[in-house]
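Hi team,

Filling in the usual template for the complex we talked about on Friday. All components are listed, including any nucleic acid strands or ligand strings, so the model treats them as one assembly.

SUBMITTER: L.P.
PURPOSE: interface mapping
COMPONENTS: two
RESIDUES: 543
SEQUENCES:
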Amino acid sequence: MIDLEFLINTLSLGSLYALLALGLVLVYGILKLVNFAYGEYIMIGGYGLYFSATVLHLPWWATMLFAVLAAVVTSYLTELAAFRPVRNKSANALIVTSFAVSIFLQNAVLILVSPRARAVQLPAVFSRTVSIAGATTPVRNLIIIGTTVVVLVALSVLMKRTVLGMAMRAAAEKFTTTRLMGVPANLVISAAFIISGLLAGIASIFWIGRSASVDPVTGSAPLLIAFIATVMGGMHSPTGAVVGGFVYGLLFNILSITLPAGMISYRDAFMFVIVVLFLLFRPEGIIKGGYTEERVG
Amino acid sequence: MPMLTVENLMASYGVVRALHGISLEVNEGELVALLGVNGAGKSTTLKSITGVLRPVKGTITFLGKEITNRTPEFIVKQGISLVPEGRDIFGQLTVEENLRLGAFVSYERDRYKADLKEIFELFPILEERFTQAGGLLSGGEQQMLAIARAMMAHPKLLMLDEPSLGLSPTMTDQIFVLIKRLREMGSTILLVEQNAERALEIVERAYLLGNGEVEFAGTAEDLKHKVDIASVYFGGDDAQKAGVTL
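RESULT (copied from the run log):
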């Protein structure tokens, strides 16, 4: 059962989940905020795809750029308008704000577009299948894996080799001390939201691509996955998020092939049981350490 | 005109008033100490100057410019660098990255390289540990890194918060020798210390804080003669004056 097809499936699912989890953890690292509006950046990305294709009639590659840009801009604007004013308040204020942003964006789309789902068509190449060494897989899966590799390499270069990346890692560890180096607080926090939005935007292309439709509550499922993946992998480092994403993908695929046909629809319930076990026996996640708990303020 | 002027500074943590109107001055080229027991308000004063804590009242002027209520990043840019209490280096970052962030406000490629060379002469151990994570350094090495990191910004005023805290006696000696040397190299330094006897050996002037107020201000000589330092810390007559009760 563990064959090449399973491997490709797991890597592609894990890649997508790793991107989702990474976007959530980058903001958590610096603001110590689990941003519950994160799913909405993915939703907005999906509407970006829809809008640029059906209204603007852009070519497929441009719709993807448009979707990513929409998610980035949304993420940045929510930081400016909603999170910045309450940044120095309590952690609870930040969390409640993130719920408010989430509800606001969902309802904005509901009123401005429609409560009903909109069809989103990705180019045919995404759903075409190819055979590699006897394994048949949609091209989409290979694109996800390739994209994730590029994103992870680029992100690690940014974090390790640039001064901005150093400042972001420093801020995740000791926020006030980082400001005492002269690093503007707004710079690192905005950068975290922009990169988080970028990851949400890229993930949205693949997420929406699978269901070929987008609706106002599209964001809740990827948010939940990102959250669970970070709980399993560890909230305290980008590495933890990536590991958590791949572990989630692996467990999910193992459940898919081992559960009897009648129980497949309870896959999510089994995933939640695993999460509960993690919270009970390894609450810090697979990857320990990394960011400290010092809050901005 | 003094380089740094603090006037009638009041600061609180929530409802607890930590500073009841502190005034002090640091002139260019001076080495000044801020002494006092735990809770006297030394660190709070530094936190207010660096903008980490917003004072309730009072003004802080640096080089003729008021910096009260400005952000820490703005104040660093004006030329005040702090070596924080407990060193506070970035443990996850390498020694190199710590130093690079120290130079954040004033980075110029050539100068940065020259600065590194100078730092390695002062602290050879940092060159040895250049690529290691800061968290792997010993306490004394971390203190050197913290001082080096602050110096990378070319501060006009260097503030050190309890640099000898938690260090071995040998290491403490080294740190005090270093502070003296920095002073001779022309740095202006505001030194916060619990170790008053040691501090008074190297500073020109000192302020003795007690209960959030300046109890005594004067030259190091004055302080040595007029105030029984030991009693301040151990509860003699002058201790009561400095607000210490045992």
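MY TAKE: The domain at 4-281 of chain A is CATH 1.10.3470 (ABC transporter involved in vitamin B12 uptake, BtuC). The interface with chain B takes residues 163, 166-167, 169-170, 173-174, 176-185, 290 of chain A (CB under 8 Å).

Thanks, L.
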